[in-house]
Design a protein that fits this description.
Mean pLDDT: 91
CATH topology: Rossmann fold
Distance between the termini: 11 Å
CATH class: Alpha Beta
Low-confidence stretches: none
Helix content: 40-55%
Structural class: alpha/beta
Radius of gyration: 17 Å
Order of helices and strands: EHHHHHEHEEHEHEEH
Largest sheet: 7 strands, mixed
Strand order of the largest sheet: 4-3-2-1-5-6-7
Length: 214
């Protein structure tokens, strides 16, 4: 397999970084309790992901857009992520983050960590304030699966040659289809889906080398 046919797709919140962007934004905006209640409803299956996201984003309406950059400063790369990314690059892989979070925050980490591409939700800003709306389709689990198809076509990669890394139910479609799936501190629902479970992304670097035969 040629080196240019290697692709790593990573989730963002709770995988590439050590927290959830919406929770950090909610804390900064003073609406953490309200957001937590909606998150709990979604986790119980009472709300689908897209509706839960829209409801939480609506609670941010009127907050300064600068909260997005403050949130990016508060989040930290997950343990071992730099080692994992360095190994992926050494093996010639493209690395793309596909997130249910927000473009402005994802883009900060994409530049900082040298990722090739980033996909996320576009939160609408007007006159320097968050409007409480998300532009376009929400990055649902189905959307993550569709982006995986687009990326495979773009980079000439078969799904079986993709390494996918995630932690939650929203990542299941791409994890199920990837040739190698890694759960980083995954939710219980993913335990029967992933090939490996790691608590430190440095451990996952060895799986890349094994998967691509070097």
């Amino acid at each position: 397999m040629a080196e240019d046919s290697r692709l790593v797709i990573m989730d963002f919140d709770g995988t590439l970084v050590d927290g959830e962007t919406i929770d950090v934004l909610a804390e900064l905006a003073g609406v953490e309790d309200e957001v937590a209640r909606i998150t709990e409803m979604a986790m119980k299956g009472e709300l689908e992901f897209g509706e839960a996201l829209r409801r939480r984003v609506r609670l941010l309406a009127g907050s300064p857009a600068s909260l997005l950059y403050e949130a990016a400063k508060r989040l930290r790369p997950s343990p071992g992520v730099r080692e994992f990314l360095a190994t992926a690059k050494e093996l010639g892989a493209k690395v793309v983050v596909v997130s249910g979070g927000f473009t402005d925050v994802v883009e900060e980490f994409r530049r900082k960590l040298g990722l090739d591409e980033g996909y996320a939700n576009e939160i609408v800003v007007k006159d320097g304030l968050l409007t409480g709306k998300v532009y376009g389709p929400v990055m649902s689990s189905e959307a993550k699966g569709r982006i995986m198809d687009i990326l495979c076509t773009r980079y000439g990669v078969r799904p079986s040659d993709v390494v996918a890394v995630g932690d939650g139910a929203n990542d299941a479609p791409m994890l199920k289809r990837a040739g190698l799936s890694i759960g980083f501190r995954p939710k219980e629902i993913l335990l029967d889906v992933v090939d490996h479970v790691v608590d430190h992304l440095g451990e996952a670097a060895d799986f890349l080398t094994e998967h691509w035969g070097q």
